[in-house]
Specification:
The complex is a heterodimer of chains A (338) and B (327). Chain A is built from eleven helices and twelve strands. Chain A is an alpha/beta fold and 338 residues long. Chain B has one domain: Rossmann fold. The chains are: A alpha/beta (338), B alpha/beta (327). The complex binds adenosine-5'-triphosphate (2 copies), iron/sulfur cluster and magnesium ion (2 copies).
Chain lengths: 338, 327
């Protein structure tokens, strides 16, 4: 497989992607590349624009949304192009799965038929060939006894199995990119681990790129190689999972890490991020995070820090970042107590 | 010290229809659960979706009927639902659940709603109520200028604070919290968890904390009960349960929690799906998914047994003397 660094291996390029609803801007210029075969995580708190980014890129937002910017697939512009281009890409070269499988599975159609239909649309398979391929996909995503359950309806499957069915549908178009939007949030911990495992395995087997949207930093670190942290409609930090998890530089990223209770820890007090996420209608002046930021300086409340490149393909939007080797606050507390 | 609340052999059977015209089949949502909560103690309840956690929580408060078993509050049997005694007792036991928006009335300001229990239970002289509400708001970290806001004018975290303030208004001895922070973002979740711990320590409130988030339960609970298909399969102090889970289901559950920066490889990934409660497997309900199941697991139901000080498990292999004797 190609090395991710080569410009030629770029599969999807988002440039200055902006979205507004009813005159309120919620996405403020997203620049993002997804390389062929890579697994990219998108994290951030509710409402920061994770879903809207990909819904906008795939033309899935409602008509009232004002979208601007560029979306390229293998160098070909998708934004503002003819509908037919986008429609053939969607579900074909790029597939998207959502948190709630019931929103995408048709409740009154047998699941075998739904997958066969997807195969007809995206790969022109019919008859026995389509059926055989559908069975192969069901097998691949781990639906036990697929042959016998081919003619069941979605409600006859459990939540975890419905998510597997969704993934099978997504794979029907042999996508180059699978966008998985919180695919495990509604599932039990043990089933969640199964689905994460499945996503990792499928990427290995098919070589498709994965964008994994989640607010769970733990889940992201298992599935992804690279991660983007979003806050209030912007990317504020980006880097390899290994680097960024070892030493988060943005005070928000660092705050997210510190706020998560640890399973292997004691019962120490949690370290919350004070305040709340800003209302997109009334974003603070300067850095959007400044009212909640422990490291904010006067300048942070005046100007907005741009997203700048650091070493190792890392990017950061902060005037006063966490020093590279700073320990997490939890550890400082632990050591003080020791 | 005697327990604040004690459940003995609670059973809840729902009649569930399969399909529109199917005949109703009994589902034992809670199947013989016993537990105690001491004054000021926090008992965490975790387990698979559908394992009966919420049903158990409602039964502890007497808002869901038990078909078998009983609940004792301060040593006395729980009065029947909707009697005057039950209503009086309800002031001492409050429920906080996941969706604060559904728990609040969108037409009333939050100050009015926080004060509601005072009115319902006629707890304070009228002229003192406003100042008590102001104290409660301060205690949960709401600003006084938010008193006249309506629920939709607050953030999710602020709404949950309002719900908790209302639950605290009647100075309860027991809070049953059903997924109270699950809908909140991590940064806000940490604020609310800290606040709940502070309030609990300050007022010595006992808490039953139901959640699927093991990390939060680890942080807030003194003791933890793990449920699987209507039964408690393991119980231990929070300190030891997460460090050294004994029951194979607890082991899989703890192992499935994604830890930032730690790879999935090497973790136990439980195979198979949770069983259908309407079709409970014979023997140990966990045996079809259990990596260490033996013959006896397929036929005999393992009882919850003490395996060491303050620690119990329902597993033939982990806790069963009969199996050990055989081996
Ligand atoms: N159809 C819509 N109409 C109006 N506003 C919308 C719509 N969809 C999203 N928004 C707004 O856009 C912003 C970004 O939403 P988005 O769904 O991308 O958040 P998210 O990061 O995916 O959050 P979550 O973790 O809750 O899924 C939010 O402020 C949201 O309220
Ligand atoms: N009112 C009801 N009528 C019929 N069945 C019910 C009812 N409430 C719960 N059940 C069933 O009882 C079982 C236990 O449900 P319960 O809601 O207590 O589980 P839970 O552990 O809280 O799950 P979750 O983690 O998904 O909230 C489930 O099989 C559920 O379908
Ligand atoms: S730019 Fe300033 S306010 Fe924003 S995150 Fe960095 S230090 Fe904090
Ligand atoms: Mg979303
Ligand atoms: Mg529940």
């Amino acid at each position: 497989m190609d090395k991710n660094s080569a410009a030629g291996s770029r599969l999807v390029e988002l440039r200055d992607l902006r979205v507004a609803f009813d005159g309120v801007q919620v996405l403020h210029g997203i620049n993002l590349d997804v390389a062929k075969g890579e697994a990219l995580g998108l994290v951030g708190e509710s409402g920061c624009g994770k879903s809207v980014t990909w819904l906008a890129a795939l033309g899935l937002l409602p008509g009232k949304a004002m979208v601007s910017g560029s979306v390229k697939l293998d160098g070909q512009e998708l934004a503002g192009g003819p509908r037919s281009v986008l429609e053939s890409v969607r579900g074909g070269r790029i597939a998207m799965i959502f948190q709630d499988p019931s929103s995408s599975l048709n409740p009154v159609l047998r699941i075998g038929r739904q997958i066969v239909e997807a195969l007809a649309v995206h790969r022109s398979l019919r008859g026995e060939a389509a059926r055989a391929e559908a069975l192969r996909l069901l097998d691949m995503v781990g639906i036990p006894d697929a042959r016998r359950r081919f003619d069941l309806y979605p409600h006859e499957f459990s939540g975890g199995q419905c998510q597997r069915l969704m993934i099978a549908m997504a794979l029907a178009g042999e996508p180059d990119l699978l966008v998985a939007d919180e695919p495990t949030t509604a599932l039990d911990a043990t089933i969640q681990a199964q689905i994460l495992d499945l996503l990792i395995r499928l990427r290995k087997e098919t070589g498709m790129a994965t964008v994994f949207i989640s607010h769970d930093l733990g889940a992201v670190s298992q599935v992804c190689e690279r991660v983007c942290v979003m806050y209030a409609g912007r990317i504020v930090e980006e880097g390899s999972v290994a680097d960024l998890f070892a030493a988060p530089r943005h005070p928000y990223t660092r705050g997210l890490f510190d706020a998560i209770p640890r399973l292997d820890g004691g019962r120490e007090r949690l370290i919350p991020i004070p305040g709340t996420v800003p209302n997109p209608k009334h974003l603070p002046k300067g850095c959007s995070f400044s009212p909640r930021c422990p490291r904010a300086e006067d300048g942070c409340r005046e100007a907005r820090p741009p997203l700048l490149a650091l070493d190792n393909g890392r990017k950061l939007a902060c005037f006063n970042p966490v020093p590279p080797v700073a320990k997490t606050a939890v550890r400082i507390v632990e050591e003080a107590l020791a | 010290m005697s327990p604040l609340i004690e459940a003995r052999g609670l059973v809840r059977v729902y009649q569930v229809r399969r399909g529109l015209f199917g005949r109703p089949i009994p589902v034992r949502a809670v199947d013989g659960v016993s537990l105690t909560v001491m004054p000021g103690e926090t008992l965490g309840i975790v387990g698979e979706s559908g394992s009966g956690k919420s049903t158990l929580g409602r039964m502890l408060l007497g808002v869901d009927d038990a078909q078998e078993g009983e609940v004792l509050f301060e040593g006395r049997p729980m009065p029947a639902m909707n009697t005057a005694e039950w209503r009086a007792l309800r002031a001492k036991m409050q429920l906080v659940y996941q969706d604060p928006l559904a728990a609040l009335d969108r037409r009333l300001t939050i100050a009015v709603q926080i004060g509601e229990p005072l009115e319902i239970h006629d707890l304070l002289p009228k002229e003192q109520r406003a100042s008590h509400v102001a104290e409660l708001m301060a205690a949960v970290g709401l600003r006084s200028d938010q008193a006249d806001r309506y629920p939709h004018e607050l953030s999710g975290g602020q709404r949950q604070r309002a719900v908790i303030a209302r639950a605290l208004a009647s100075r309860p001895r027991l809070l049953v919290c059903d997924e109270p922070v699950s809908a909140l973002d991590v940064s806000i979740q940490a604020q609310v968890v800290n606040m709940m711990r502070d309030l609990q320590e300050e007022h010595r409130i006992a808490m039953v904390f139901i959640s699927h988030d093991l990390k939060v339960v680890r942080n807030i609970a003194d003791r933890v009960a793990v449920m699987y298909l209507g039964r408690i399969v393991e119980e231990a102090s929070s300190d030891v349960l997460f460090k050294a889970p004994q029951h194979p289901y607890t082991q899989a559950l703890v192992s499935s929690v994604p830890v930032p920066g730690q790879l999935l490889e090497g973790r136990v990934i439980l195979q198979g799906e949770p069983p259908n409660p309407a079709n409970r497997p014979a023997g140990c309900a966990f045996h079809p998914r259990c990596p260490i199941a033996r013959d006896i697991c397929r036929s005999a139901v393992p009882q919850l047994r003490r395996i060491s000080e303050g620690r119990a498990a329902a597993c033939h292999v982990v806790a069963g003397e009969p199996v050990q004797a055989e081996a």
